[in-house]
Every structure is written in structure tokens, then in C-alpha cells.
Amino acid sequence: PGQVAPADGLTLTTRSVTLRWRDWGDPDNYPNPSREYSATVRKSDDSWSQDSGWTGSTSWPVTVPSDGTYRWQVQARDGADSSDSTAEWEFTVNTSSAAWTFMLYLAGDNNLDFWLQNAVRRLEEMAYNPHVNVLVLQDGPGSNDTWRYFVQPGGNYTDDVNRWHRGELNMGDPRTLSDFILWARSFRPADHYYLAIADHGRGTTGIAWDNSSGGDYLTPAELRTALDGATSGGVNRIDVIHYDTCLMAMIENAYQIKDYADYLVASENIGWGVFAYDQYAQDGALSAQAAQLAPAYDRVAALVTASTTPRQLAISVADNYYDHPRLAGYPRTVSALDLGKVVTVTNAVNGLAAALQAYLGSQGDAGYTLLLGLRDHTVQKFDSLDYYTLDEEDEYVDLYDLARVIGQNISDSAVQTATAGVMAAIGTAGNDFVVAERHYSGEMTDSGGSTHTWNLGGAYGVSTYFPPISGGWDYGGYVGDQLFDYTADSQWDEFLAALFDPLPPPALPPTDPGIPAMPSPGFRVYLPAILK
Prior knowledge:
There is one protein chain. By secondary structure, the chain is of the alpha+beta class. 28% of the residues lie in helices and 27% in strands. The two termini are 54 Å apart.
């Protein structure tokens, strides 16, 4: 006979187990075509064992006495001879609720599929960690290739038990994200929940592009819709949300999900495709060789214990992304934000917006020239346009650095008070709104061989939209409250309108900036392909 289920190495959450096997046949078919089987199961420490007795069935329901690791085997007889017992297969029973459930929304229906698949493989190579469940929704670049996984050590799956074919789902549909979260929380309840959305991203545009669905993606408004449905309007909050993409660490995006999550991890600038989920979840450390090869989700799974708090996990995700061995020497940013304090920051920004509008009204052209000059030439910017080049055309600026630079260069007392208020509300890493912030300046080389220097010394953890002119691709939607709830509830868009409305309109119509390419260490750049 040969074993069928539970698969070797499978983890079960119930003590009622049905052992199944198949009949490989008897070449001499003697003395009769009927065969009987006997299965034996034992706890790995030999403290308990049970056998089925001889039976004509190819399955045996058995209830094991406790959580732990079990081994089982089966043999056959035909009335004359008995076969040797099969090699032992192993399964683990863990009926207790895990501390964490990781929900990985891997939108790979584009050119990142290979790297996202690699992230799942690394998770499968992890040692079993009883403190974390890892659930995945993954879509590839073909058709009919969307799968749900309950990640199993060794990649040992049984269809419709821990792996489910979902046909072809649109990862840019908010219902797909909401359904996945609801299913994951029902299938593997836990004390805490971590949601990662991995793909290309752009702060004022969205995340999770799906080429097979006409290039659809999740806009900030759709992300809010999905999270509202998945959390029952914020009743069942998600502990940590990780936008594992480019350019999403904006106050606008933090405000957008403040009612549905406690912490946000994201990058102010272009992100790198390391996807290290296995080390985020593993209870221990990978070997040095594995750490060098791991795509990044593995790095945080490596550190989860029964006592890991949401704040600790958010900081761990940020730190392990930044410290990933494959990113050594590459320019990068990452931060973790406490969403419970985003309203305080927003109120401080409102004070700054009001003070700047009053300043512009009193200073005339000189005020406009000074403020725009500081924005263009001194404040830290991030790569929202003409990707891989940081310059005055970029539209996202670091919010803390903006307040710092304005405070150092504009002596107006109301402006001074307002900039100090913004900096105090944001805080330095480890305090207040920003609980972790890491950045590194350096060079990267694009796929064409051109070298780019990213000076990220003014990154403090959260950015905002502050374009150099009014005619950018996002400007009309931003000041018209069409992109974010933040603009409807804050005064920042009113400040931008007050700044730009008196100026001559741009001579050229706005140009679609496209999707930022996510580089992977090793001088490869993954340019997004969009189906029109």
C-alpha cells in the first residue's frame, strides 16, 4: 500500500484525523484478489500508539490524545503473505490558536510573479513555527492561475485541505482583497493579524496591478472599501498592514486606513523586491546561507513568538527589510507608523497649512518664491516621476523635512510655531507617529546601465503630496478630494490651491507618470507591463 493523507509533514488543527492510503495491487493476485490493511499511528515520543487492526478499508478515522507530532504507517496482507510496513509519515497536531496569522496578498499577475513565487518557496522551507499561520492569495501572469495556500513546511499540500484553486481572480478588485481577509480570519483565527500587499505601487495612484484584468489595480479609495468590508467597519481591526511596494508611506495613505488597522509599514521611496516574509514569521534564525538567499517575508516570520506585540512586529518588519543582506549598499527607505496618532499629525498639518496661507497673503511674490524654492531645492523628495531620478520635479516630499526646512528659513512666528508642531507630532523614530524609520543613501544602476544617486538623508518616515506646479497628473484629483479622505478632512489641499491658483497655469497638459519599476538587488529592474 501507499499513504495518501494527511500528507507527510502536514500540520493539522484538529485531533480527529482520517488516515488514508491506496492499494498498489498484488502481482501474483494469490490466494485471492481481496486484501486487508493494518495502520499504526504513534506519538513521536512513543508515549501513545494505536493500530486499526486488519480491515478491508483504505481509510481509518482516529482521534489522537493531545497536540504534538505523530508518525504513521500501513501494511497489507492477502491471506498468504503480509507486505512490509510503509515508511513512516509524519503529521503535527496543533489545536491552540496561534499568536499571529499572516495574510499575504501577492499580486503577481505581472513581471513580479517569479519573485513572489520565490517568497512562498522560502516560507515553505521554514521550520514549523507554532506561533504563526501563513495564508497566501497568489495570482500569476497566466490565466486560471490564482491560488490560496495555507503554507505548509516542505510545500506538502493536499488540494482543498490546505491549497485551493481559485480560477482567475482580479487582484485589483477590492472584493478580492476583502474576501481573502475574511476567509483568512475565519480559517485561521489568531490573536493578531498581519496583512501584506505585495506588488508595484505608487502613493497617489494605488497598488496591486493585475495585467490579466486589463491593468486594474486597487486605488486608495478601493483599499479603504476593501478594508471597511473586511473589518466590519473597523470593529475587527488588522494589527499591522504592510504595503510591500514603492512610495506608499504617505500621510494620505496612513489616514486612509486609520479606522481599520493599528500600524502601517511602507517605504517613502522606491522599494526593493526582496519580499522576506519567511524570516518575518520563523521562530528562530535562518542560517547565514539561507538569509543571503531569502526574499524578505521569511525574515519577519522568523521572529514571531507567542508574546510578539503588533508594535514589535511592525518594527521588526521595517528593521528586517532594511537589514536584509541582499540590500547591503543599496539606497532604501522604510518606516513603521502608529495609525492611532495620524489624526494628531493631521491636525498639526492643518495648523501649518493655515499659517502658510497667511504668510503667503502677507508676503506676496517674495513669499511664493521663497516657499517654492525651498520645496524645489532643499526639502527631501521621493521618486514619484521620471523614475530613478530624484529632482525638483518629484511630487512627494518628506513631511518632517518640509516642516524642518520651512522652520529654518521662514521667520514668521506663526509659521515657526506650526512647523514645530508638525515635527513634534511626527516625532523621531521610536516616538509618537513614526515608531521606526530607516534610510540609506547610495547608488543604484538601472537595467540600461545608468547609475543613479539617491540622497535620502532627509527621510524621516512619512511623506506628503507637494508638487512643484499645479498641472501634475494627480493634482486635480487631489485638490478635488477624489483620491483620499485626507484631503476632505484636512487643509493641506486648500493650502496647495492657495499656493498655485495665483500662478500661471502649466503650459503642457499633465502626463501619466506610469507605474514605478520595483528593482531587485543585483542591478535588475522590473518594469511593469501594462495591458491597454
